[in-house]
Specification:
Elements lengths: L9 H15 L9 E3 L7 E3 H17 L4 E4 L3 E3 L5 E9 L1 H5 L6 E8 L2 E9 L4 E5 L4 E5 L2 E4 L12 E4 L7 H13 L2 E4 L3 H8 L5 E7 L1 H4 L2 H6 L4 E4 L9 E6 L2 H11 L3
Parallel strand pairs: 3-5, 11-12, 11-13
Antiparallel strand pairs: 1-2, 3-4, 5-6, 6-7, 7-8, 8-9, 9-10, 13-15, 14-15
Helix pairs in contact: 1-2
Length: 263
Amino acid sequence: MQNTEGVISPDFLRRLAAVAAREALPRFRLPGTVVNKLEGGFDPVTEADRETEKALRELIRSEYPDHGILGEEFGNEGADAGLVWVIDPIDGTRSYISGIPLWGTLVGLTKNGDAVAGMMAQPFIGELFYATGNGAFYEGPHGQAQLSTSATKDLSEATLFTTTPAIFEAARRARYDQLEKMVRLARYGTDCYAYCMLAAGQIDCVVEAGLYPYDIVALIPIIEQAGGVVTDWDGGPAEKGGGIVAAANAALHTQIMGVLHAK
C-alpha cells in the first residue's frame, strides 16, 4: 500500500465530490437529452456526464497541473505522467437516467499505474467513500467511520453482486452461474455502489466483466484499504479493467477464483 496522505488529502477528495455534485445533482430526475454512444446497442451519455467531467478536470488541472488525466468522456491528457487521475463522472448512467440514486462519481489516482487513492461520491444520498493511503473511510448520514470488509470466508455464507449475468460471454457465464449457486444470496445492479458496500462490510464479493479503467480504478484503493482483495479474472492487477473479482478477504477470493477457473 502506498501512502499518498499529504500529497492527496481527504479534503481535496471532498472538494472533487462537491464539484461533481454541483453539476450532476441539479440535473438528476429532470428531463434531459440522452445520447447513445454505441451503434447496435445502448451506451448512454448525458449532459451531466460531460459537464461533471469538465468541472472535475478543471479542478484537478488547477491543483495538480503536472498530473495526467484519463476520463470516460474526454479521454487522455498527459497519460504518461507518473500520477494520473482516472474519472468516471457518473458511474451508473443507466440508473441516473432512470431516476435511481445508485450512481456515483468515481475519481481515482494512479501512481506508476497502481491505484493508490480514490473516492466514490453519491450526492443524492449524501455519501462519500474514499481512501488516500491510511485506510478507507465513509462520510454521510450515518456520520463518519472507517470502513472494514466482512469476515465472511465461506461462499455458502456470502452475498454476491454483479451488474447482470448477461455481461458474461458464454464460457464465463457458465462459471459465474456455478458461483451464484454456491453463495447464500446473489443480487444484481448498483454499479459502483456494490463495491462500496463490499468495502463497508455489507456484502462479500463482486464479480463482473467488461469494465474499463475508469469503472474500477477509484474503487480499488477503497476496497483494498478496507481489507479486501481486488484482481482481474486471472488474479492480476485490476487497474486496466476487464473481468473483475473483488472479495472481502483473501480466503474468500481464493474460493471464488477456484470456482471461476475449475477444470
